[in-house]
Each structure stands twice: as structure tokens, then as C-alpha cells.
Amino acid sequence: MSDTGIGARVLRKEDKRFITGKGQYTDDINLKDQTYAYFVRSPHAHATIKSINTAKAKKMPGVVDIFTSKEVEEDKIGGLICGWMIHSKDGSGMKAGPHPILASGKVRFVGDQVAVVIAETREQAKAAAQAVVVSYGVLPHNVDAAQAMKTKAQVHDVASDNRVYNWSIGDEAATDAAFKTAAHVTKIDLINNRLIPNAMETRAAIGSYDTGSDHYTLYTTSQNPHVARLVISAFHGLAPEHKLRVIAPDVGGGFGSKIFIYGEEVTCVWASKRIGGRPVKWTADRSEAFLSDAHGRDHVSHAELAMDASGKIVGLKVHTIASMGAYLSTFSSCVPTYLYATLLSGQYKIPNIYAEVDAVYTNTAPVDAYRGAGRPEATYLLERIVETAARELKIDPAEFRRRNFITVFPHQTPVIFMYDAGDYGAALDKALEMSDYKNFPARKAASAKNGKLRGVGFSAYIEACGIAPSAAVGSLGAGVGLWESAEVRVNAVGTVEVLTGSHSHGQGHETTFAQLVSERLGVDINNVAIVHGDTDKVQMGMGTYGSRSGAVGMTAVSKALDKIEAKAKRVAAAVMEASTDDIDFKDGTFTVKGTDTKMAFGEVALASYVGHKFNSSEIEIGLKETSFHDPSNFVFPAGVHICEVEVDQDTGLTKIASYTAVDDFGTIINPMIVEGQVQGGVAQGIGQALLEGAHYDRESGQLLTGSYMDYNMPKAANMPHIENFKLGFTFTKCPSNPLGMKGCGEAGAIAAPPAVINAITHALGVRDIAMPATPLTVWNAMQPMKRAAE
Amino acid sequence: MPAISMKVNGKAVCGDVENRTLLVDFIRTNLGLTGTHVGCDTSQCGACVVHIDGKAVKSCTTFAVACEGADVTTIEGIAKNGKLHPMQQAFHENHGLQCGFCTPGMIMASIDIVKRNGKKVSEDVIRRELSQNICRCTGYHNIVAAVQSAAEKM
Amino acid sequence: MENFNYHRPATVNAAVALLKKSKGGSYMAGGHTLLPTMKQGLASPTDIIDLTAIKGFSGITVGKSAVVIKAGTTHMEVATSAAVKKAIPALAELAGKIGGVHVRHKGTIGGSIANSDPAADYPSACLGLGATIVTNKRKIPADAFFTGMFQTALKDGEIITEVSFPIPKKSSHQKFPNPASRYSLVGVFIAQGSDGKVRVAVTGAGPKVYRVPEMEAALSKNFAVSALAGISAKAKGLNSDMHATAEYRAHLIGVLARRAVEAAK
Hints:
The complex is a heterotrimer.
Chain A: H1 15-19, E1 35-41, E2 47-53, H2 55-58, E3 63-67, H3 69-74, E4 106-107, E5 113-119, H4 122-131, E6 133-138, E7 163-170, H5 172-180, E8 184-192, E9 204-210, E10 215-220, H6 225-234, E11 244-247, H7 263-274, E12 280-283, H8 286-292, E13 299-307, E14 313-325, E15 353-361, H9 375-392, H10 397-404, E16 411-412, E17 418-419, H11 424-434, H12 440-449, E18 452-462, H13 470-475, E19 484-490, E20 496-500, H14 509-521, E21 528-531, H15 549-575, E22 583-586, E23 589-592, E24 598-600, H16 601-610, E25 624-629, E26 638-648, E27 654-664, H17 671-691, E28 725-730, H18 747-764, H19 775-789
Chain B: E1 3-8, E2 11-16, H1 23-30, E3 49-52, E4 55-58, E5 71-73, H2 86-93, H3 103-117, H4 123-129, H5 141-153
Parallel strand pairs in B: 1-5
Antiparallel strand pairs in B: 1-2, 3-4, 3-5
Helix pairs in contact in B: 2-5, 3-5
Chain C: E1 5-7, H1 12-21, E2 26-28, H2 34-39, E3 47-50, E4 60-62, E5 66-70, H3 75-80, H4 82-87, H5 89-95, H6 101-106, H7 109-115, H8 122-129, E6 132-135, E7 139-141, H9 142-145, E8 146-148, E9 151-152, E10 160-166, E11 170-177, E12 184-192, E13 198-203, E14 210-211, H10 213-221, H11 246-263
Parallel strand pairs in C: 1-3, 2-3
Antiparallel strand pairs in C: 4-5, 5-10, 6-7, 6-10, 8-9, 11-12, 12-13, 13-14
């Protein structure tokens, strides 16, 4: 390992601009003569739009123009799409209602955009937006997933019972049969609380149309600018791809919410042409972000787990109602299906699984992928029911898990996935040791002396990430392939530029991708530049989500580097007058085997462009290679997290006393960055378990948690102390990519919620507690016990 | 429009603003110092923290006109002669940032914490006093470590 | 946000005159209540009269029997004042729990009290210590000052100039913050006066800060946790929202009152 290669704790190359205030986020960019957009949003959860009167608003100072669905339809701008077709059990396709970029005829949730005001300043646009008069005919609404199929509030004409699809996976008959043989069945009802992503940079866009060249540019907060370009071209019909450049500059966090194509961004591009080519800039207020960013989770589930007399799991049955919100967002349909139910086997040998999912419309913001996307919901359900089963059977929860772990690989689950490698027992052993599990009773007694209830909870999670391969996802309904591209350009002086379709919005690709190049080519990490986030520079890519940049994106780079190495060897061989087979390449030096004739990488790079020393009809001049990598399988990171909590009996306040995370991510490029991903993910998981929850008022349909006054974000004091937050790693190599990488971005958010909730239920001695386990919720849960004691 | 003048990062600056112009907008728009960010509209996220007369304040909750004659320091003004401030260096060395959006406010708030609490500032105090700076990426772990590390060097 | 006329008078009298002349003006000290409400479009004053340039508008004087804090004194100044920490440690602690650091650098005692936010902290110290609120016109006892939710006894144009807190034998402030906003979900301020009489003030729980006579009577007889046994706050009339039901708030009042008696110094 070189000090900047694979496995090194290299400090981040991108840090300098961020710590000195020189980052360039979308809102930091200002184009000449730009205008500002502000959206008129629905105050109602469900209503017909009777009329929109913009006359007075149009006369207000600074107003350039105001657009509604009328102009959208005039210009034939297509609606937003959902790119993953899901079929119901009965074979029918999912029921996708129309999703225009500005609401047409009807609004379906509080915050639905109805009109856009373009003005000279942001204040003027906002003031005029308030003067747009919309007449609504209020309709009955429903914000509750569990009620969606029973309510009279029908969100879309295409779905009379609000059901988008009724999907299933697994063998129902076999699972029913297994349950008949069971010695014990554990049943549980769970709600996976709706979350609001809250990347600290809100969504923003600048759309710019050049009248001279008939060319569009969109600067935007995107995790996948090429997908945005593709969708805006192909579905909204705004411009063909060669006439649209999408730039995602520095992006301040995504967590899934910036994968999707939203109406506001498309509107900025379209409106710029409509007003004659002046750029149109929009930056969401945080209040708008709360209302209009795609939310996450929102499942209502019933599950049953069957065990035989020896405590071995023989079957799992699950029914889930998943709220999709008011419209199907870009990838929403695959989240509660192929990203969720396929993970219900967890780390366990479960011979029979059957799951049924009803996806439903509600009068709420659309729900789509949020850090983990389906996998946290699966893990929460499975790890809660497994823990509950262990308690019912009076088996230590660690032992119960161990008894059911998959130990032989590859392992085919009954729900599609073929797990390729893992050692779940090793992670459990390490986590037990690091968390000092054996001395938990002593710590519990110490807490009790201080009037605190202490509990310990486990979470043995698995995730399928590096979302791919293309053929597999295609057969499951994906509208896109899930590969990644890379182009490696070696300059004549031996410095390297890597163009990648992956996108970094905090993950540190400028460092980790450079580490790979440094390792492979032996070049100084400072002589490597990573280029991403601009469709004019990088030809095509699928972007960053689903913990795929390492396993998929870096593999593409690695394959391009293979080609660079092969080409450079031919050049070196020609220059050194040897056979290509006789060239060794190590630590940046090409050597003729068995001699001391050698060339440095930089010399070969120069030679490949000078072109005098080889026959350019045999070896093409230059050193630039491309790879499109389509993986052969998903990757399967897994691990065991153990959480200890202390609950204040007086107030119900829960403190994370300690948290131990042991993860198997396969090969780790930069442990410092990976640890940061786990810490951040766990914070989001702790947030879901203890603090965060989107709350729509049933009566009014209003979002009650519409600002940081009421939506409780994790803060520094909510997290365990440095010495009580322990991270460890185990290692099994991923066989499906040459680097052996698995992906680490979502693990914390997936693993943490059940670990925390299992710890609280353990502390309180209750069967269940709702997320978020706020002081009020915990105090309420303690009341029956107190009454019983009194 | 009223003309205002103040010192920003050691330099005298002036500009014409509306009375309602927030300090953060003056800094970002009039001065082009876009390192100071806006992360919310309810004065709670701390992304906009700058120093006014040496104290950490929210530039989104301060009118520019009220800063007439003030001495303002932003994230762009803390490195001296090309040398990073110890807090900037510590955020880098401890991987105290990921997407970087909250980082300027976080660093400005952290400098204020150390200035008031000294080298031996406890982990509890750091965590409590960062309660109005929200980070969605790091889980705060490495931010707290960075502040502790910088405290010893400041 | 609507635009407004901005004034920065140098004297209290000038400030009063400016407000009188304005159509719908507002005083502003730290601005940490007014500005967020203006940003949300909930307030649109025609004029803002910035009080921070008034000479002698901030400062702390600790006398034999009272701590006098000028209206423009920031929360941070109170929280870190060695003299306040010595005379009424609970008052310094309370100031140190308001908002966050950035708020405490700007927010002022006068602004907080004049706003009478039902979940603010200072009103509980005023009521719990039996403070006197001094304005440009008169002296108002705390018991008569907080008249309702966001309502006080202040007349149009009247400006708080200072607050005088009698130094108690001992006192304590206990706060259970709203998990999200960090305002008081419930806050309890308990003080035993130099005459032995005890005052118990509660914030966050009801429409305005209020006293709890049953607890005061019991603690005046016997300043001990045991004196609170059997006294439970009534849930009726208390605030109920997604963060706390009225029952939970009533429960927290009891918990915090016990903790305050235990911690009083």
C-alpha cells in the first residue's frame, strides 16, 4: 500500500475549497441578466383549480412573466415520469397518474406547484406570487397510508382505490405450508415513519437558453446530471441531448432527494426560453424544501415469523402498505418492491418468504428513495421481528441470530438475491466484543442506581447496493440501465484526468477515485484530477445513489485503467524495443523483464503523444481510454450494530449511551472517508429512531413538521460521545468486482433504527414503541407499567 | 436606498442596500462572498454564521443596515497570509466535513466556542454549543473531534 | 419581507418619539424574535426602531438586595457575568440555556420579556424571582406584567429600560426543551426569597408564564422535595401539541419542580 493508494487514510483533496468558503454551489452561481423564479404552491391537500388570476400579479414591480399549466400545455412540455414499471400480482401495470410540471386542473398535496412567477429579483417574484389569485374547490383528502384504500379521497382518476399496484414476491403457498409446521409464530405491526431528507443545501436551479445557438444549460443540485439531461430531453421534450448541458456543481448533500427530476428544475429550463433567453434562477426556501422534496419511508406493515422447535426460522410473511404520496416520483415505485422485499431474508436462512405490497396514493409530498431506500424498511421490519421472536422464545438475541445466520456462500434467498460472500458470525463476534456485551448487566445496574433504564439492542443488516446489473434491473422493470462509465485521460506530462459518471455531493470522490489511480499508475495523487457533474465533459453516466460509486463507478475507472496500462505497455515495449509480453508495470515504472531497462510512467505518457518512437499505424497515438462497466451482480455489504440506551424514567428522554458498528464493506479505499459515511448514516438512523418524523395533520392535510422548529434534526448533542461510538470492520472480498468493494454509504441509516428501537423496548420491557421514540412517546409507553406498579 | 459601510474581513466595504436586506444577502450578493450559506428560513440551521465584532451571529437574522460600522469576519477572512486558521486545518485533518455546505457556519461557530471556553473546552460543551449548527452528513463525530483538536492549537 | 423605515436613535426619548410618528412601527433590540417573524411574513412593521445604539441601554449592576439588568443586555452577557453567577446563579444558568450561542450573542433580556412568548425562559425568572420591570414610564411588578400569550402590560410606545431581580436565598431553573426548537417544552423557576417565601413559576406549559400557588405554599413551609409529595399539576388548560400532551406537560412540571428544589442554591 502506497501512502496515497488503496487503503490509505488520505486527507480529502476537495476540502480546501469548502473550508475556505470557495465551494461553488448552484446558488453561488449568478448568470448575467438572470431573473428569479418563485412558485405559487397549493395551500390545500386536495382541490380542483377553478381559476388562476395573474392579472394583478403581472403588474407588480419587476415581474417579467407568470406561467401556469396553460403555457406548459401550449408548449407541449411533458409531465414528470416514474422510471420503473411495477406490475401487480394480477399482471396489470402500475397506475401512474399524470404529473405535470405545474399542476393542471387539480392540486394533490400541500405544496403542489400551481404557477411560477419570474421577476427581476427574488423578493419581487415572491411578492407577486402572493398576489396570484387561485380559486380552489376543496376536495376530501387523505394523508394516511393505512387509510388510503378505504378513503373517499381519490387522488388520481386511474386508481379508484388509490392503489398504484398490489405486488408480491415469494411463494405464498409454500410459506403458508411452512407456517403450519411452526412451533412458534411471532407477529408484529410496525410503522416506518415518514422522513424528510433535509440535505443542508436546498434544491436550486438556473435554467439558461441561448437564443443564438438554440442551446440550453441547466445548473442544478443533482446527484445524476446525465439522467436529468436524458429525462428532460426524452420525456419533457424540451431539447435534444446535444442541445442541453446539465451541470451539477458542488452539491450540498443529497441522500436520495437530489436523484429525482422535479417540476421546478424543468420549469427553470423551459421558462428561460419562454421569456426570451434570460436565465431563470430558483433556490428553494427551506420551507419549500420541507413541502416539495421527495420524502422517504412511510410504510405500514404487518409481519409474521415462524420458527421450528429448535428456534430456526422456517418462514416469513409480510404485508406492507407503502405511501407513494400524491404522485409517482422518478424511482419511487421500485423502492417498496425491489429495493425492499428482496432484502427480507436479511442475514438469515429463511426457506420461505412471501411478501405483498400495496403502494398507495395519499395527499402528501411524493415519497421516493431516501438514504437506504427500501432497505432500511426491510431491515427495520426483520430486525424488530427477529429481536421480538428471540425475546418470546427466551433466547439471547445474539444467539438467536447466530443460530439462523447464513453461513454458506453463495446463498440463494427465496426473494431473488444471490448473496455472494459474507461472514456474519465474524461481525457479530466482533461487535459483541467491542460493545462489551458480556458486562451489560453491570452497566444496567449502574444506570438503575441513577434512576435510568438501560437497554441493549441489536441490528444485523444486509443491503444490496451498487445497484445493477442492467439486464437484471431491466427484467424487473427499470427504465434505465444501471452501469457506470469512466474515461481516463493521461496527459503528455503524465498527469491524469478521470471523467466519471458518478457524482460526489459529499462522498469524497475527488480523493478516493484519485487514490485508485495513484495505486494503479503510481502517480502522485496531486497529479490526478477527477472530473464529474457536467454533461458536456463526461459523456454519459448514471450518477451516485444506492452506494454504487465505489463498486460500480470505481470499477469502471479500474477497467479503463486496465486499458491504459495495456496501451502504455505497448508504447513502452516499442520505445524500449522489447516485446509487450516482456514489459512489467509496477509502482509507476515499466521494466523490460530481466533487465534494468525501464521507463517511468510519465515518460511513456510523453512517448505516446510524441509518437516518433513507434509505428503509429500499429499503435494509435495518445493515451486515453474509456470503459462502460456493467456489474454481474449487486454487492452485499452487511454488519452488526449494537446500541445501548439510557432512558430517563422521569421524563422519557432517551440518550444513546453507546453505539457499536461493525461492517463488512469488502475492500476499503479510504478508511477515514468510510468511517465518516458510517457515522453520518448512523446519525440519520438515530434521527429516524429518536427524533425525526414528517407529520401531516389528518384534519387539515397540512404538514405540521414544516420547519426546524418542529422537524427535529439530529444535533451534536444527540449523538454518543466520541469514546462511546465505536466502529469496526470485518472483511470478505466482494467477488463480483475486481476491487472487491461493496459500498458503505447507506449502512448506518439502514442498521441504526432497529438497533435503537430494540434497545429502547429492551430498556422499557415493552413489545413495541413507535418511531420517533420522542420523550412524549416513551413517557406514554411507560405509563401502563407505572400504573401496574402502583 | 441607504448606503452602508462596514469592515468585512479587514477591508472597508460599502454598498447600497434596502433596509430589509439581510446581512447574509449583502455579503453574498453585494460583496460576492458566497462562502456564507443559507440553509433555512427560520433562523435555526447555523449555515450563515459569521462574526460581528468578534462574536458568532446569524447573518440571516441581522439587517445589513444594523451593521453600519461593524467589523464582520466571514469564512473567507480567517486564513491569514495563505495559512489556514487552526480550525480550518482541524476540520480538514479530522475529516470534519463531507458536502461542505454547513462547514463555513460550523467553523465560524466553532472558533467562537473555543474563544469563549478555552483550550480545555469539554466535549459536552462543544456538543451543546453546536446545537444551532445543523450538519446532515457527518453525524458530528469528526466535527467535535476537530474542535477539540483545534482548541489545543488556538 | 416587506421593506420598512429604519431608525437607530441614541436616546430612549427619541425612540419613543419615532415610534409615535410611525404608522405601525416596532422596536427592535437583538431582533431574534422580530426578524424571524418578519421573514415568515407574520409581522410587517412600517418602521423599525433599533434600540441598540441607545447609550446606557445595557449593563448589569449587582447591589445588596437586587440584580439590575438593563434591557439591552444580551443573554450571553448575563450568562457569563461573574456577578450574576454569584448573586443569582439560576438566572445566569437560565440565560445560558436560551436559544443557542448565536442567539445569546444578540438576543436581549428586554426583547425577550417584551415579547412574552409562552415558551420563553426569562419570563419564568421574572415571575419566579418577583422581579420589577422598569420602563421609561413606570415600574411594573412581574406579577402584573405578563398578561397573556405574546401580551404584556406595556402600553403603546412604552420601552423596558431595566429589570430588577431581588436576590433570593436560593433558586433554581430547570428546563425541558422542545426536542426540535429548544424553546421550553416546560421550564420551572423556583426561588426562596430572603423572607423565606417561595415562588414557583412555570413557562412553556400554558398560554403564558404562571405561578403554582399549591407548590409555593408547601415549599414556603418546608423547602424540601418531600413537601411536593401529593401535589400534581393539573393538565387542564395546558398546551397540547405533537411534542407534548397537556398530561405530559403537567407531569414534567412536577418532575422539574422536584429537580429545582433539589438543585436550588
